[in-house]
Amino acid sequence: MLTSVVLLVLLSSTSLWAATLKVGATPVPHAEILNRAIPILAQAGITLEIVEFTDYVRPNLALQDGDLDANFFQHVPYLDAFNEDAGTDLVSLAGIHIEPLGVFSQKLASLEELPQRATIAIPNDATNGGRALLLLQEAGLIELDPEAGITPTVFDITANKLQIRFVELEAAQLVRSLPDVHAAVINGNYALQADLSPTQDAIFLEGAESPYVNIIAVRAGDEQRADLQQLVEALLTDEIRQFILDQYQGAVVPAF
Asked: Contact at 8 Å (CB) between 184 and 175?
């Protein structure tokens, strides 16, 4: 009887670490970073399966529905707004990196070349749209009502000396808008996916002190799962930090 109990405990322990983790991610840089963690996790007996998404909505819905164990594509302000809007219950497990937001243009070499009534495309979701407006305020193009906090909208603009016109688009579509606008404020992952280097091609770039750290998100209640803790440990290694520094040359900045 004792032997059977010991065998059951050993089998349970083995199954805990012979797990498969399914993690949703946008292709660049998130899936690339996760790919580097595959052999690290394999040493702990965990198989990492990466599911790629090209938008910011489906990976959170898939996580909430239990189709994923975690996802890796967003920052906390976006997650908080998504939870409120969609009624989801997702939480941040750990911060991994920062992707500086940048202003890109196919028509201008600098912001000083912006004409009167220029058109600038920005993300249409509340958090990234607000972040884009804060970046344009930092560039001196507009002024915002300080009471709007980190999620201002175009209705919070209090000064707009160039009478800039804003086009709000889904973040994934901003690169495609470049031929049709004077400039676009583009998330780092979508810029990299389109072979745009934020550090080389952006005409204005968010600083590395940005509070918008990209996170591993999980369902509330799963924070202490051993396999998810192992995922975080793998991503916070010196090996992953060096990969980010070497691969992205400042376009993605480790947050650890």
From this structure: yes
